[in-house]
Structure formats: C-alpha cells, structure tokens
Write a structure and sequence with these properties.
With about 280 residues, the chain is mainly beta. The protein folds into two domains: about 1-150, Jelly Rolls (Sandwich), CATH 2.60.120; about 155-280, Jelly Rolls, CATH 2.60.120.20. The protein is built from four helices and 16 strands. The protein has helices at about 45-50, 80-85, 90-95, 230-235, and strands at about 1-10, 15-25, 30-40, 50-55, 65-70, 110-115, 125-130, 140-150, 155-165, 170-175, 180-190, 205-210, 220, 245-250, 260-265, 270-280. Strand 4 (about 50-55) and strand 5 (about 65-70) form a beta hairpin. It is globular, with a radius of gyration of 18 Å.
Length: about 280
C-alpha cells in the first residue's frame, strides 16, 4: 500500500537552496517514496543532477538516526541504496525509476527513489532535508513529492564515503555503533553527471580490495567481486552493475559487532565511493 503525503518541496530558479520536510503520519510505515518532477525553461531533466544533497533522519534510532546522508559526490549511490533495501528481485526492480548503474532517468523530468525508514513509533517525526539546484533559468522548477510505503524493507541504513583522486590505497573504517552488513565500492570517472558518473568495467582500475586486512577476505584480483551487486540485486543475472567498475561484499558477509574497515587500492587519480550497508547493533 502507498499513501500520498501532503508534504512537497518546490525549488525555483538557478540558485541552490535547502528545505526540510517534517514527515507526519498517523500510522507506522516502512519506507518513503521520493518523486521528482521538473518543469520550466532550463530545468534539470535528470533527478540526480538536480539534487545537491539529501538527508533522511529518523530520530528514534538515536546516534544512527541519519539513515541516508548523501552529498554531491555520493548522491549517485541513491538508486543502489533503493535496490539494496528491497527484499526481493521484483521489489528491487521497482524500487527506483533511475538506472542504478549510472543514475540516469528512464523518463525525462520524472523519477523516484524508495528509501527505508522502518518507523518504530509515532512520537517523533521523520525529517527529510533536500538541497536542490532547479536548473539554469529563473523559470526552472523542481518539485519533490513524498508518499509513505508500508510493505517490507530490509532493516538497514547506509554510510557512503567519497575519496577524491584515489591513486593509492584508501582505508575506510565503519563505526561499531552499527553492524556492517556489506560493502560496495565504485570507481568514478569524474564526470559528475547522471548517465556517466561511474567508471566503465573495462578500465578495471581497482587492483585490490581487502576487508580488515585478513588473508581470507583480501582480493588481489578484485574482478572476482565484480558480480556482487548483480548477484545481490538481480539474483545473479549478469546485468547493468557488472558494466561499471564496482566491487561488493554483500552475500555471506562476515558479521561482527565491532568496528571494521575496507581497504581499496586504485591505480588511477580519480574518485572512489565506498559505501557501508549497516544494520542496528
């Protein structure tokens, strides 16, 4: 079931601005759908080009209340977050209208993403903060509509980190206040535009991926991890994610209730996004 919320956020003009929506509901819900429509001269026709940052804050989770927190570098992971939050392949296919591997719109000037909330009580309202640049003209408009979802989502949240000019080994720690359930690393090509933000698989510039520096989880031929996103999202069918220079440890991930780190070695001075898929301790 999907219930439309009364809350909308509208941005107009050429300057970046920020709005916070306080999401009120009379019933518990598991997720929200954020849809974006563009109109007017010069507006962005692709949702992720219009978004500068997005924060989904669910206060009842305390220090882990920021379930999603992305900026201009890590926003490209939003469709991947949507799909990883789904319980099944069918749900993952419908979890976003964006192309997961490149952030492109399937339909110009309209797109949506589903994000997990897993609301625990009705005493505290969820807050969604969006920073948006509508377009290149004073008449440019971007409007965000919110709806509540009450079907099952995975009980997870995300910690994405961007490393610029990652020409050598990058070590990313994930805190012990949550449980690390998996890791996704994507090499970016620096284009910073929907449709081509990720490096192509053919470049294969990542030369090693290691979890906690342990021999059993150190891959000096990281192409072995290349099918991980397709396996977790599409059930194993080679698809769109294998086309990008991505590496993931998701299925049969070694679960430990301690701080963990991933070490990624990249032989190119470009960007690297490392995202932790977390659950509550």
């Amino acid at each position: 079931m999907q219930i439309q919320s009364a809350q909308t956020a509208q941005f107009t003009g050429t300057a970046a601005s920020e709005q916070t929506l306080v999401l009120k509901s009379r019933a518990l819900y598991s997720g929200i759908r954020i849809s974006c429509t563009g109109s007017g001269t010069g507006h962005h026709t692709k949702m992720l080009d219009a978004i500068n940052s997005l924060v989904l804050d669910v206060p009842e989770y305390g220090s882990r209340s920021r379930r999603v927190d992305v900026n201009s570098d890590t926003k490209w992971m939003l469709p991947i977050m949507s799909q990883l939050s789904a319980l099944s392949q069918a749900d993952a296919n419908a979890a976003t209208s964006l192309v997961g591997s490149n952030g492109d719109n399937l339909t110009a000037s309209f797109a949506y993403i589903d994000l997990p909330v897993n609301k625990l009580n009705l005493e505290e309202d969820v807050r969604l903060t969006i920073n948006c640049t509508p377009g290149s003209n004073a008449a440019s408009v971007q409007t965000f509509h919110i709806s509540f979802l009450d079907y099952a989502f995975r009980d997870i949240y995300f910690r994405p980190f961007f490393h610029a000019a990652a020409a050598s080994s990058v070590q990313q720690w994930f805190p012990s206040d949550g449980i690390l359930r998996g890791v996704v690393a994507v090499a970016t090509d620096g284009s910073e535009a929907a449709g081509s933000w990720a490096e192509a698989r053919s470049s294969a510039t990542v030369t090693q991926v290691s979890l906690n520096g342990e021999q059993a989880t150190t891959f000096s031929f990281p192409q072995l991890l290349g099918a991980g996103l397709d396996e977790a999202i599409s059930g194993g069918t080679p698809g769109e994610y294998y086309a990008i220079d991505s590496y993931s440890m998701l299925k049969t991930f070694p679960i430990q209730n301690v701080a963990q780190y991933v070490d990624v070695t990249r032989g190119a001075s470009k960007g690297l996004i490392i995202m932790g898929v977390m659950s509550d301790a």
